[in-house]
Amino acid sequence: MTKCLNNTMNAIQEIYKNKIVAVIRAEDYAEAVEKANAMIEAGLKVFEITVEKEDMLPAIENFAKRPDITVMAGGIVTSMSAMSAINSGADVIVSPVFQVSLLKFCLGNKIPYIATVSTPNEAYNAWKSRIPLIKIFPAKSMGQVEYIEDVLRPMPFLQLMPSGGVSLEDFTDYLDAGAVAVGMGRCLYKGASLKEITERAKFALIQLNKHENKQI
Known about the structure:
8-stranded parallel β-sheet; disordered N terminus; alpha/beta
């Protein structure tokens, strides 16, 4: 089950536009769908659903049916897993590492590939490989906002999406530092009811709106 090619290739632009990627890790696909739906109710539109296990693929299929939602398959490390995610309708493949073989596979299947890196050297090599968006993880452990500033100072051309420890209170600071988007995970749903997840997502969007208005 796949979306049309144009929708898939526009997925990266949707990330740039929406700036918040909700990163969902769950015990099963039903839990992932519930969490995502609670955030969709608040207005979030871009999701990375970790599919380290095949039984998580129905969560991808669920949102692949919706043209208003961008759904990415996270935790992908093999071409076989990438193909399963593509067949399930994923708009983007996200890997926790940078693999040239996986990049080539995604290029061959005309689907965007987001690599995860930690160091400036890794980020540069990913950019040199024409990866359109580079995930920096774990952002908090690497030095938080200051680390993003340090990486971008000599290489402002990098399109970075910090993730890992990004919070509701500081995510706009990453955008101010030059990140094009942020990945937000547990801060949106850890220890929260579905109603609380919706409220947290609403709060994030309010903060983003204030940030965007400040930039005008």
